[in-house]
Structure formats: C-alpha cells, structure tokens
Amino acid sequence: MKELVIDLEAEKKEILKRYRALLKACKSSLQKGDKRMIRKAFDMALESHQDMRRKSGEPYIYHPIAVAQIAAEEIGLGTTSIVCALLHDVVEDTDMTLEDVELEFGKKVAKIIDGLTKISGVFDYTNSSLQAENFRKMLLTLADDVRVILIKLADRLHNMRTMDHMPREKQLKISSETIYLYAPLAHRLGLYAMKSELEDLAMKYTEPATYKYIAKKLNEKKAERELYIKKFIDPIKKILNEQGLKAEVYGRSKSIHSIWNKMRKKNIPFEEVYDLFAIRVILDSTMDNEKADCWKAYSIVTDFYKPNPDRLRDWISMPKFNGYESLHTTVMGPKGQWVEVQIRTERMNEIAEKGFAAHWKYKEGQPTDNTNSGLESWLQKVREMLKNPESNALDFIDDFKMNLFSDEIFIFTPKGALRQLPLGATALDFAFDIHSDLGASCIGAKVNHKLVPLSYKLQNGDQVEIITSSKQAPKEDWLSFVITAKAKSKIKSSLKEEKKKIAEEGKEILERKLKSLKIPFTIENLNKLTTYFRLHASQDFLYQVAKGIIDIGDLKEYLNAEKTPENKVYERTEPTDFIKKLKADEIDTLLIGEDLQKIDYKLSNCCNPIPGDDVFGFVTVGDGIKIHRTNCPNATKLMSNFGYRIVKAKWNSQKQLAFLTGLKIIGIDQVGLINNLTGVISTDFKVNMRSITVDSHDGIFEGTIMVYVNDTMHLDNLINKIKQVKGITDVRRFDTDTPVEKAS
Length: 744
Ligand code: MN
Prior knowledge:
Strand content: 15-25%
CATH class of the largest domain: Mainly Alpha
Bound molecules: manganese (II) ion
CATH topology of the largest domain: Hypothetical protein af1432
Structural class: alpha+beta
Number of strands: 19
CATH architecture of the largest domain: Orthogonal Bundle
Largest sheet: 5 strands, mixed
Radius of gyration: 30 Å
Low-confidence stretches: 122-130, 361-372, 564-588, 737-744
C-alpha cells in the first residue's frame, strides 16, 4: 500500500483554488447576493466535512465542489442548485441537520437537500432493502423538483469519474446502476453529453477489455480520420460561407459505448462500424430564421454529397420528448463512405448538450417559464405514473425504465391531434394513453382506416381510431403486449378489482359449505385452509374456490390435517449466512466472497462463464450461488436491483477443467470445410465438441459449435487456429441468448 503523506497547507491552497474555479464556472448566472450565498454554503460544507476524506485519501470537500461545478458548467444550473450541490452530503454524512440548513438557507434549499438525502440510499450498497424501492423513492423526489435529480446526476457523474479507489464489486454495482437508471435519466432529461460519459465510464468498469480495445482502435486511426473529416468539411464550409450562413462545422467522435452497441447489435467487428464520427453544422442564427437556415444548410450539404433518402431525421419540426432539436441526414462522403451530418443552431446545440435545464432558468423567487416544454409534459406523465404505483417496486421500475429510455413515435388521433408514445407501443397503449376508460373498453382499432388487433405495434405517423364495446373488460393477456406504464398499471388494477369481486363470491360459497358442515367461518379456519393449499393470501384461496380450481369437497379433512404440507415460502437469507452454510467444495476453480472462500457455486447458463472471464457471484434463493459474466445480458439488472446479493468471485484457475462455450463460425462454403474444421478442433487442438450445427445457403457457411475449453486463453488460441482454416472468414464466441433469468 502506498503511504499517504498529507500536506495540510498545500491542501488548503488547493481547496481554495478549486472553490475559485467553481465561482468562475457560475459567473454568468450570478446576481446580487449570489456570491455571498455560495460562499456561505461552501464554508458550511468545508466545516462539516473537515475531517472526512474520500477513498482516494483526498479531502472530502473536493467532491461537493466538483458536483457543484458539474451542476453549473455541464448542466447550466443556477445559484440555488450550486448551494444545494455544495451541501448535498452535509445532512447525510455529518452532524448538520436539515433544520440547520433551513435556518441558514431557507425552505427551498432545505427541501432539495431533503430530497437528495432521501435518495442517497441508492448509493449505500450495504443497505439490503430492495434496490428498486430506492429507485422509486428517487423518482418520487424527481416529480417534486427536477433539480433534485439533476444534482443527483452531477453527484453520480463525479462518483463515476473518481471510482478507481473503490473495491471491484462496488465498481460493478455502481456502474450497473448507472447503466440501468442514471444514463437513461440523463437521456430523458436531454443531457446527451452526460449520458454518453456515464455510459462510457460504466463500460470502463463492466467491460474493461472491450473498452480498452475500442479506445485503442479509435486512437490508431485518429490521424487518418481527422484528415478525412477535414476533406469532408472544407468544401461545405466554403459554400455555407458564400451563401451567407455563419456556421461552425466540425467532426465529432462517437462514444466508445455507442460504437460497442453498434458492434453488438449488428454483430460486426470494429472495422465494419463506418460511422465512428458525425459531422456537426452549428449555425449562428436568430430565433426567427432558425428553421429556414437549417433547411438551407441541409440543402447545401446534400447538393454537395448525395443523401441517403431513408436517413433523414427532422427533429426541428417535431422536437424529441427531451427537447432535442436537430436535423440529421446521412450522406455519401469521399471514398464511398456514409457520413452522418447533424444540422442545428447554437440555441438547439445548447439544449442538446445541457438538456432542458439549460433553458430552465431557476432564478431565485420567480417560477420557471416552461409553458411549451416537452419536458414539462413528460414530468406530468411521471407524476401520473407515480400516482398509482405498482405494489411491486421492481415491476414498476422495469415499466418505468422502458418508458424512460425508448425513443418515441408520433401518432395522430382521428381528428389530427398529435400524441407521443414510446417506440413499440401498441394500439391498446394508445387507447390507454388517451383515456383509461377508452383502454378498458377497447376491442380493436383502425390504423390508417384499416382494422387491426389490439396488439398491433404502431408506426411513426399512424392515424389511429379506437373501437370500443361496453361489454369489454381488461384481460390478463393484455399485459403481455402493452408496453406503457400507464396501460400496465390500469390493466393490473382492474384485474385486481375483478379478482377481489370473484374472491367475494368464493367467500360466499365457502360460508355456505362451512355452514352445512356446522363449522364456524373464522379467520383462523380461513388461514388454515389457505396454508393447506400452500397459498400466500386468503384472497387467492377464495378466488380459486370461486373459479372451481380448488375443490372444497373434503373441507373437514383439510381443517383437521395435522401437518400442513411443506411450506413453499422460502426464508430470505442474508448472503453472508448463506455463504457460511455452504460447504467448501474440493474442486475449486473459483474463489467467492469478501475473503474469497472456496465454496459451492453453479455456472449460470445464460452467459456460460469460463475461467479468465470477468465474473461475479449472485446469491439465488433456491439454487445457491450462480456465477455470471460481468457482461452477461442479465448482469446489469441483477447487479443494480439486487446489489446486496452480489458476491465477489475470482478465478483461481490451475486445474484443467473444461467449460462449455459456443463459437459462431462464418465462411464461404467449400468441399471439405466441415472436415477441416472439425479436424482442427478435435485432432489438432484436442478440444471436445459437444455439438455442431451448420447452416449453408447461397454459398455461405454458418456454423455454431459448442466446445469445451479450459479458459479464455485456450479459447483465444482455438479461435485463432480456426480462423486459419481455408474458407473461414469470421470466428467469434457468442453469448447464448436466453431470456432474463428470474432473480430468485
Ligand atoms: Mn455525493
């Protein structure tokens, strides 16, 4: 361990230097008296945190200063938020109370700090209550005052930027939360720059190897790319100028995370991702001329470079939900390469970078002017969703996230009014969006005058008319295709009502039966019966009685049953107890838990980890510890929602054990290919194959081979060897794509 030498004098100087940089960052928004307020907040924070240090050994005060700086510089927040950012950890981590804050800074600041303190449990990883409940709390505070969430995002961004000193499992957990909720929130609030940085930082921890690989590749071609960009923009710059448009034109690299996303989605190697950058044309224009200027610029660009007609996106006529306005086109650049061009004005660019907050001037005393903001209507939706929250917090967050992150489509009503819905919304979602009664009685829809079923997935620009019937009622299977949170919660609450009614009938049936047997109807008897049938709630029992699922012919026998059948409800076990109970296994290749013990585990079959993979353990309820790869498709959800069930796991691979993994092989079909292939695998390389599936069409060979390997190095060698087989063009490991594993 490195010894820490602390020079207090130097630190004092550094703190003041950072404070001055903060003041400079908020200079533009400072009004009379603001500076004094900020100073007061800084002094209070400095004093309260004075003996605290961060994991890195630095003085704690660096953190609130940095959070305040992000709030000012990168989100464009005003003085109240700067004050709150400086004080954001004071109530939670020090002796200072909310009353102290209110006394010094007033009600408004105290309320925001209260919100920030309430949701701080999200960061507290040892808290073993369901993470989703914390997320829900966070969203509740979001509905109160958006500044709470904006400061929380600044807090999260700074924590992500300075996570190197955290233990590995905390890095994984925090990164997963970031991907699961914070990045989507930043996206939803229009903070694109922050969203990209959060995603890249999270990827750096969850996928270190891939992250480094892409970063390296990007760097290698940097000079070449810059030359290309210059060649691309020089001529259009010139014409824009000649045509009297003041514009800044530059190329901008896509984020590592978005490049990786593309590689995964299209299943292509880095070399085949063509849009590693986008060109931005930022116009200096007045409010009145913005739209005309943007289209003029568009016409200049597409006169010079041929556009792909399918790739025009007009978010100027219809801005995105989060306020994003821009004109996107993809054109054929030099050397036959497709290039994305984004055209917008400086004002639009400010919104694109800093989000709506940039235009929300939270000036002291005056209410916000956001009459026309799409964000306000989104917040309205959030409040609506929170009004009837799901009893199951996890479901709620899942639904919410789905609505939070997906892109939106525009749908017209029969009268031509415009509604925005998330991508993937069905005709039934649209009905519920208009009104819950319309949704509940919906039997079908006409889309562009053609009759379609309820489950029809709407397309951008569809005009939808809903057909209803007074006899219709919400059905269980509707839940399988609606995607909006509003539709889901309305259907669920209606089904619950229905169930309650049927259970009432069941109660009457039971009462009659008991009466005929001269047994009193008591809660005790009801509970006995419910337990006998291994049900959780007496309502479930009564429902099943009414539905005839349960036959109550032998009531006496059930009630007198000495022993109720084995209880199916599992006790929740704390992970640590759980680990202790497990017996050490002699054949260890994995070390699990804080002190990396040798205990029993199972390899999950959604990602088939092999030695050398970056892995973690997940404590399941009935199935011991399961090992997943950190890049497993299910990992993010497991880690962010059940963080307390994550245990550290590390390979300790000395034994020659074999692990199953899959390879996807693509090539040009030719005589003897399979023979050569299996020859390399089993004869030359002596690897056992479990299965091989081959598909050949139009001369293209596509094979999937399941093989047993020892570790990632062994696998890499095998892949390289197969690549040398004549006719093979591509070999890669694939992740078996099984549906999300239940957390229990
Ligand atoms: Mn903090």
